[in-house]
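thoughts on these tokens:
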Amino acid sequence: MTGTLSMRRGLLRVRPSAVIAVAVCLLVFYVAFLTPSHPPLPSSHVDVRAVLTVLGSVGPFSSPRRDPFDTTDVSFAVLGEPLRPIRLDSRSIIDTVTGAPIKEPNGDSFNPALLKLPSGLKWQYVVVARGPRRVHKDTKIGDRFPVEQSLVAFAANQTSTGQLEVVSTPFVLPLPQSSAAVCGYWAFTYGAEDPRLYWSDSGTPVLNFVQTPSDPKLCRSIGLVTDLRSVWPELVWVLREAPGIPLFEPLSEEKASLEMLKESGQSTTEKNWAAFFPGARPNGSSTPSYHYTLQPPSILHPTSQSRSSIHYVLQTLQQGSPSFDCIARHHPGPSRGQFHQSTPLYRLTLCDRGCEPTIHNTVLVAIAHVKKARTKKGLEYGRFILTWNVTAPHEYISVGPEFRFAGTDDRDVVYALSLTFEQTTPAPPPSRSFFGRSSPIDPYGLNPSHGFIDDDALVSLGIKDASMGTVLVSVRELLRGSRLCDESYGNI
């Protein structure tokens, strides 16, 4: 019997060539009729400097100033939609030691760090903020009553008006609490402060904070919670089905919180380390690098890790490079100690969401602060945008003008702590698999903190060391007015 099919001893035999032909036909049918059609992906070919030049040419770099420290009569660019407060009732905060609401909170929570979660979960964001100060009048440190500082964690979702609403029970994170006598006058204040949240390249939520050092000769050091789930049990359950997030592995108490130490030159008080991960996409690393000082530009790279600490080596950008004095050239006046980091450094790809991030179209971006004194009005922080190269030596690419956010007047501390990028274009429907299940995982393996040029940015703010809020601003608006650091490409 000839042909594709043949009968032999009651069995139907199918030739391999026929099987292959049928499979190809089915695949063609599936692709043509069953897979959803999507518009073509945005182009990934971008000239980073050209894009920044176009954005920067829209407006002036900064307003003229008679004196960089006298901003009384200076009108800076106002960015974003009006400030939206984050309201948290201090009486609802749970003390993790007693399991009861905290007693006699002094003030409200402030300085919120914000982390965006993968889509489709019951929580959209997690927030860690400085909690109300608690005064202990049963003892004294020197001639002062001790003031305990703590970090408060809670979840939040966006309402239809864009405001963040608390959707979980706020509680005090169980972090190291002890006083450091070497802090002198400020020894009476102790506990965790200055939170920063970000995603590691291994897919874990990470918390940095300022703590009392293990070395009694030091006042403040940087602490690292390698996985926020280790100190927030409910977050384990919320993230258990999130795509791209590794399963939680319980850590011992000493490994849950590590101390960040410089191999040499550790300062008495370490603050404002800005975390980042090199490259345009996640590389699987769980250990961040840090931008250490803005002037001169310097970076801390991890070298070794012990059971309780991670050690870093300091690398300063070579003097004479176009980026070395970029901030000083465009923000003359304040001394170098007045400039410091504010938010972590985030990856930002300078083409529309959906394009493929590469080292040629992606930068690191962050908000930086300039600390200023305002006559008879206390402390003031100015702010501006910086971008860096994603590859070593991570030099500055551009620096932006000073600005303020809508709904704030900068009469007292207005402090930016984090950026989250909000998609403005409709997401494509999830692709189908041969097994009928959707596959919403990002094709490029990006984490939720990766931004694109057509996104909006949600900025979390601490107001007057007393309250919390957010401002929504487009990424293009944030970058507007920037100047390039490399003079060979010309100023804007």
